[in-house]
Write a structure and sequence with these properties.
The complex is a heterodimer of chains A (299) and B (412).
Chain A (H helix, E strand, L loop, with lengths): L2 H23 L2 H20 L3 E10 L9 H10 L1 H16 L2 H16 L17 H10 L9 H11 L1 E4 L6 E7 L2 H40 L3 H21 L7 E15 L2 H29 L1
Antiparallel strand pairs in A: 1-3, 1-4, 2-3
Chain B lengths: L31 H23 L5 H17 L11 H15 L4 H9 L6 H9 L10 H19 L5 H8 L2 H6 L6 H16 L3 H14 L1 H15 L7 H17 L1 H19 L3 H8 L10 H17 L9 H23 L6 H20 L3 H33 L1
Helix pairs in contact in B: 1-2, 1-6, 2-6, 3-5, 3-6, 6-9, 9-10, 9-11, 9-18, 10-11, 11-17, 13-14, 15-17, 16-18, 17-18
Classes of the chains: A alpha+beta (299), B mainly alpha (412).
């Protein structure tokens, strides 16, 4: 293809584009349809529920209870501080998504989140909705559907609606969700974070208590003085750990930014709705014009 | 318009979060908004089809077929299948929207990139290309599918310079191609890039061929290697003209393989075990705990060859009817049989059984298929790989066979 050919082709394309623009797009019909798209857009925008972005930033605390010897602790400062932060984050996130956390939050949040019946005040009597298909299948196959919601439903909700993202160095955790009810969501997010920390602490305390019980049992049978010494040190460490954990201070995490909402809603995207409707309506007009002018050739 | 909160806000035709009945669930608003966003994308693609028709780049039949093809993405995700079946779509969607809004990769991919010393991944490259499609919205996972459709249309228009449209349509309405070009994955880009590369190579336009081959190094390294054999064979050994040249190429390749015997064996075993582990209960972690890698490893290249040859008939036709468990299995089986029959039909119709370039192309395709047949473990993944390899080669075989037959007829 030489330059002359290319020039001819470009000129032809431009001429065709001009024809398309004048015959198909810049017509009264298309302009009217473009205007008609506005009421549709307004309808969708006005019926949409604005949703706000709610987020919090947390950091694993550097107050891990002392359980190892001084030399081990010193070595860990140089070798594994990042790894420890990452491990704490993973433990915290697992805890937040666990059924224990959901169980801890169930009494306070069940009615607020799931109850559709204002007369019902019992968290264990919140009816579970089932689709027609689910009900029909259950009837046909012959099994019972769960009648009431449980804390496991709250766990599913936490898992599906709250996002936890750990940054590159496995330190900060970005906790995000979005909702139309900003105040409620801020409070809920705060509760989830604190409950997750508390549950993780409780698990750690239980672990330490079991360890103390086992060590105490074994220390009575031990005859070697060096083993008795090591066991005693471990028991002391675990007691110290329990003392460190059995309080209201955060164990796994501390807040950098407390839960807060975005000043503007993140959905619906008003511009995208207006723009998309405009395109669809213009396309309808162009399509009608295209059909009218080409129906003999294309059919 | 780009969904800058793509990882959080997921517009879909039904309420995306299905469990429970919380007031928080009213998150995506009216489900019709999904259709508004995606119909706008369809409208723009349909507009391109109209322009192409007006410019006489599309025949009336092709125009109607393309209107239909442009509508398909609307009916695949959420309607025909749950997009989670091809869960990678969300990764491409998140990456495309993140690149378009912030210029940086989405957090979880940025982390992988950071850990890989900043190496450009196929996902990031694929998403960058998909983000270049001139569609108005990247609001939902289906938008990426529309971006794929745009590139399929452009490639169709370009390929129609070489093959008549009504014949070309056969390749674009293969069930497999309709599905992969209607999902938000990079397989469509791989197929299209491979087709363009092979047409350039078939026409001995090596520089252009290399230019289009290069992206495959990032998009799909296997395809880069399998098409690379065709390039090197044609350019260096003249294997498309001389049978001896082809033999010299294969002997040279064999010599290189034998010299690097241990390395290649380790590499092949590594990937074979990797694919098995990916498919294992519990994934890689599950395989690390309960899997036995030695059961899948071959100790010699002869063993690799034997395993590949024995497994080839199954690989070519899988999933077999007694393995079907969803409609996709039927479609992929149909694709496999159609592609195999089409190869046979092309070779017999255009009397290409003695055409050296066709023999060489089938040889290159055979190497690719044998490699996959050795690695095969997961049916869904490998039917995708098989189609991605087969279609560009089938198209090139058709193009070369027809071109050579026509020139022979002219000479006669």
């Amino acid at each position: 293809m030489d330059i002359k050919q290319a020039k001819t082709i470009i000129i032809r394309i431009l001429q065709e584009c001009k024809i398309i623009l004048l015959e198909y797009i810049l017509t009264k019909k298309v302009l009217w349809l473009a205007l008609a798209s506005l009421p549709f857009s307004l309808y969708f925008i006005s019926t949409a529920v604005p949703n706000f972005y709610v987020s919090a930033v947390i950091l694993p605390t550097d107050t891990e209870p002392q359980t190892a010897s001084k030399i081990e602790t010193l070595a860990s400062v140089f070798t594994s501080s990042a790894k420890e932060g990452g491990s704490k984050n993973a433990k915290f996130i697992s805890s937040a998504k666990s059924s224990d956390t959901a169980k801890a939050l169930w009494d306070k949040w069940a009615l607020t989140l799931f109850n559709g019946d204002p007369k019902n005040k019992d968290v264990d009597k919140i009816p579970q909705r089932h689709s027609v298909v689910q009900r029909t299948t259950a009837w046909l196959v012959g099994y019972d559907l769960p009648e009431y919601l449980t804390y496991l439903d709250l766990q599913s909700y936490i898992r599906s609606s709250i996002r936890f993202t750990i940054d590159f160095n496995a330190f900060e955790i970005d906790v995000r969700t979005y909702s139309s009810n900003v105040d409620l969501t801020i409070e809920f997010l705060d509760d989830v974070i604190m409950a997750a920390d508390s549950v993780a602490k409780k698990q750690q305390i239980i672990k330490s208590e079991v360890l103390i019980k086992t060590l105490k049992r074994d220390i009575t049978n031990a005859k070697n003085s060096s083993i008795i010494g090591i066991f005693s040190e471990k028991i002391n460490n675990e007691y110290y750990k329990i003392a460190t954990l059995d309080n209201d201070l955060p164990y796994y995490i501390t807040y950098i930014d407390r839960p807060r909402s975005s000043p503007y809603p993140i959905s619906p995207n008003v511009l995208a709705i207006i723009f998309s409707n405009l395109i669809i309506f213009i396309f309808i007009g162009v399509g009608i014009n295209f059909w009218k002018k080409n129906k003999d050739d294309i059919w | 318009m780009v969904n800058e909160f793509a990882t959080l806000v997921n517009y879909c035709p039904t309420y995306c979060v299905s469990e429970g009945a919380s007031p928080f669930y009213k998150i995506t608003g009216n489900p019709i908004i999904f259709y508004i966003f995606e119909l706008a994308n369809f409208a723009v693609l349909a507009f391109f089809v109209m322009i192409a028709y007006r410019l006489k780049m599309l025949s009336p039949v092709s125009m109607w077929v393309w209107f239909g093809l442009c509508l398909v993405p609307l009916g695949i995700n959420y309607i025909l299948i749950d997009p989670q079946i091809f869960g990678d779509q969300f990764i491409y969607f998140h990456e495309t929207t993140s690149l378009k809004t912030t210029g940086e990769s989405v957090a979880y991919l940025a982390r992988q990139k950071f850990e890989a010393d900043g190496k450009l991944s196929g996902v990031t490259f694929g998403s960058t290309v998909l983000g270049l499609a001139p569609i108005p919205n990247f609001m939902t996972v289906t938008s990426v599918a529309f971006a794929n459709k745009f590139f399929a249309l452009i490639t169709f228009l370009w390929l129609s310079r070489y093959v008549e449209q009504h014949r070309l349509l056969f390749f674009f309405i293969l069930p497999g191609f309709i599905i992969y070009s209607s999902l938000g994955l990079r397989d469509n880009l791989i197929i299209l890039t491979s087709m363009i590369t092979m047409i350039h190579l078939a026409n001995s336009r090596y520089l252009l061929g290399i230019l289009f081959l290069a992206p495959l190094l990032i998009l799909k390294i296997q395809m880069f290697l399998f098409i690379g054999i065709y390039l090197v064979g044609k350019l260096v050994f003249r294997a498309h003209k001389s049978f001896n040249g082809m033999i010299v190429l294969f002997i040279s390749a064999l010599a290189i393989i034998l010299v690097n015997h241990d390395l290649i064996l380790e590499y092949l075993n590594y990937f074979r075990v990797g694919f098995v582990a990916e498919n294992f209960a519990g994934g890689y972690a599950g395989f690390a705990g309960a899997g036995d890698a030695s059961a899948y490893e071959e100790s010699s290249l002869l063993g690799v060859m034997l395993a590949a040859i024995i497994g080839l008939p199954y690989f070519l036709l899988m999933p077999l009817p007694w393995e079907w468990s969803n409609p996709f299995h039927i479609v992929t089986f149909l694709d496999a049989t159609l592609c195999l029959y089409a190869t046979y039909y092309i070779v017999t119709k255009y009397q290409a059984s003695k055409n050296q370039e066709i023999i060489f192309l089938i040889g290159c395709l055979g190497i690719g298929l044998l490699t996959y047949s050795f690695l095969v473990s997961n049916v869904s993944t490998f039917t995708r790989y098989r189609f991605t390899l087969f279609l560009p080669y089938l198209f090139c075989i058709y193009y070369v066979a027809r071109r050579d037959r026509q020139s022979n007829l002219k000479l006669e």
